[in-house]
Amino acid sequence: IWSPWAVFYFFFASDKRLRLDFGTPGVGKTTLGKELASKSGLKYINVGDLAREEQLYDGYDEEYDCPILDEDRVVDELDNQMREGGVIVDYHGCDFFPERWFHIVFVLRTDTNVLYERLETR
What we know:
The chain has five helices and six strands. The protein is an alpha/beta fold. The protein starts with a helix and ends with a helix. The mean pLDDT is 84.
């Protein structure tokens, strides 16, 4: 039986494939993405952090009290890096990313009781 790290190295690290981790907040996307990047040498990109740093917003949602992500600007900002390869992308959805960017997509999940406890501490 192969370990998860062996599978990762075999399929992704060796040929600079691209991967996307997504799921609801609190399931471990950031923890997993950063760990895989540190062990493999791939680049880790958190889309939320990128949007904040580059102000990739298209207004503000008063009802939800949060900025509205400008998805087109995010795609434009990431396009060159994604063409080069070797990137792990962390975001809670995947519907606006071009399919050509990714070789594999992982949906992370966790038990709702565990998720509740994690989110309660944030």
